[in-house]
Amino acid sequence: MSTLSRPAGGERATIRSVQFLRFVAAAMVLIGHLQDALRRGRIPGLAPFDDPTGLPWHSGVDIFFVISGFVMYMMAADQFGRPGAPAAFIRRRLIRVAPLYWAFTLLAVLTVIVLPERVQSTQLSFPHIVASLLFVPWRAPSGGLVPPLSVGWTLNFEILFYSVFAFGLLFRRAVGLTAITAILFALMIPRLLFPNAVGDQLDAWGFPITIEFLFGILVGRLYLANIRLPGVARVAVILAALLALSLGNQAGLNAFQDRWFFWGVPAAAIVAATVLGRDLPDRSWSRVLVLCGNASYALYLSHLFTLRAVGMLWSSLHLNSVAAYFALAVVSSVLVSIAVYLWFERPLLAWLGRRTGSKRVSAAAVGATPEGLGGSK
Could you tell me if 60 and 28 are in contact, meaning their C-beta atoms sit under 8 angstroms apart? Predict the structure, then answer.
């Protein structure tokens, strides 16, 4: 479950809908990569198909980023200006995010070494690997600004946001939030004034996609101010946001530079409509959704490996049903992620929590990773 601390008296709120939305976001990225595989002819016997929704499925990353801002603010809204808060915040975030990412990054490197015929690029660079493990944007030997685990580009933005947010915790809330906003916008200035001349790191960190984290903080402030939407309004907002995503995507409004607006604003609307209302009830079916949400980070990091394995299996089955391939790939990816969460991620987090005394470290208390997701998107 998504256990988020509230400022008043240390009381905690369980927001199941956030976990459900995390699963939806990860599933969107999964579907996006399935479509990419078909479009690029990587699945023998299967041709790409026209998606009737027109949705930019990789916008699941943007939903993750908004959720991340929301969750971080909810967790730390009462920590601004408290001694030791920044260090404790960074420690919890790194414990939560880094180990699983490191594991799958090293698995990606091992795959290149052991199964080079199964990967798109066989070039490895030690500085590139180390920088990726440190969440620093670094140009790959192939020329792209992407980590060995391609979806890891979103983690670079996550860690940037965590670092800036931790700095903001040094001050009282109003000053801290102003500092967070100012720093993220200041990072955009060098690449705007000197495009392609500021180095890979500033060029990457300067993309305005980081505004989506600020959207999440805004949603968190609305939530803690007890702003709530009626059910009809929530449904209407979500439908309008999905329509905006679809129409914008079909109109070609998907440049990375403008992503914060054409994808980020609808993503913020979806997150707001999801959380600013009645939460999911505590029922058996909702617990399944929460479990899937808990495993969403594992789904995000593992699904490319699962899709590759399913593709290898599919080539030996000699079938030509796109629907069957989609069903097998989606179900397999979700099941693998749940297995990774239950048998690796959760025990690892529990062990690290005991070793470091970070009792609040949990799979439910992470925003994106979501995110994510999206490869080169």
Answer: yes
